Amino acid sequence: MNHARSTDVWVDGGRDGSRGEWWVGAFGFHERQRNRLVPPNQGCQNRHTISKGVKTMRRLVLDADGFAVAMHDLLGHAVMGELMMNSIISARLGRDLDAMSLLEAKAISQLSINTRISLLEEIMQSEGWDQDFPFVIPVLRELFAMRNKLAHSLAFGHDTNDSGDLTAVRRSFRRGAATQEGISLAKIVGLARSAHFVTTVEMSFLQVRAVPIAYWTAE
């Protein structure tokens, strides 16, 4: 007798390894094997194994996707921070708009990230801007340190730390020695949030202060 409905779902495989079929209907989870229907309270071990496997696969996919999105967001803020640094430094050091454009395109962009951060820090301290924007330099240093760490390491799975936070295991190699480190998703998300505010808000104000008056007066 066939109790399956049009909405039932069939899966091949008997609960004891023999050939059979599973079906899920309105009244529970059943197994049909050798032309007989097994009651819902049997075959539970296979059902739980399938469910556990599906949950594990779903969790791994979600973990990987979550880290991919967070790292993509972080790298985007790093690019914005780099462009804003080039613009602010060039605006402060250039004599006019032509010199600013030349510095930004040919000179400042050729410097290392650490050199540009140090140069921006010197400019901010000399102008007193560091008092108004105290978080710009620390966030930029942390942002690019994390970017370099992610860029020079390989994903080596996911884990959960003692506090229950999801952690990405990263492995890097230097001079033949392997180093393994865990980076929490919460840290990446928090840093991305801080970097977003610094690169889109605070550095925009710095850019306005750094641009010479001639830019605004069209002289």
Structure summarized in a few sentences:
With 219 residues, the protein is of the alpha+beta class. It has helices at residues 44-93, 97-107, 113-127, 129-132, 136-151, 185-210, 213-217, and strands at residues 9-12, 21-25, 28-33, 36-38, 154-160, 166-174, 177-184. β2 and β3 (28-33) form a beta hairpin.
Q: Would you kindly provide a written description of the structure presented here, covering whatever features stand out?
A:
The termini are far apart. 58% of the residues lie in helices and 19% in strands. Helix 1 packs across helix 5 and helix 5 packs across helix 6. With 219 residues, it is an alpha+beta fold.
Helix content class? 55-70%
| Low-pLDDT windows of residues | 1-38, 50-62
**Can you list the strand order of the major beta sheet?**
1-2-3-4
Principal-axis shape equals elongated
Termini separation comes to 92 Å
Derived structural class? alpha+beta
Give the DSSP E fraction (strand runs of 2 or more residues).
15-25%
Major sheet details: 4 strands, antiparallel
Number of helices: 7
Kindly provide the radius of gyration, computed on alpha-carbon positions and rounded to a whole number of angstroms. 29 Å
Number of strands: 7
Q: Which whole number gives the mean pLDDT?
A: 76
The SSE order reads EEEEHHHHHEEEHH
Secondary structure: elements and pairs:
Layout lengths: L8 E4 L8 E5 L2 E6 L2 E3 L5 H50 L3 H11 L5 H15 L1 H4 L3 H16 L2 E7 L5 E9 L2 E8 H26 L2 H5 L2
Antiparallel strand pairs: 1-2, 2-3, 3-4, 5-6, 6-7
Helix pairs in contact: 1-2, 1-3, 1-5, 1-6, 3-5, 5-6
